[in-house]
Amino acid sequence: MKALVTGGAGFIGSHVVDRLIQAGHQVLVVDNLSTGSRQNLHPECTFSQGCITSEKTREIVTQFGPEVVFHLAAQIDVRVSVETPSLDASINVVGTVNIVEAARCGGALEKVVFASTGGAIYGDTDQYPTPETMPALPLSAYGTAKLCAEQYLAWFQRLHHIPYSAMRFGNVYGPRQNPHGEAGVIAIFAGRLKDGQPCTIFGDGSQSRDYVYVGDVANAFVAAGEQRAVTGIFNIGTSVETDVNTIYAKLAALSSTTAPPVYADARPGECARSLLDNRKAKEAFSWEPTTDLDAGLHAVWEHLHQTDPHMR
Question: pTM for this structure?
Answer without folding.
Answer: 0.94
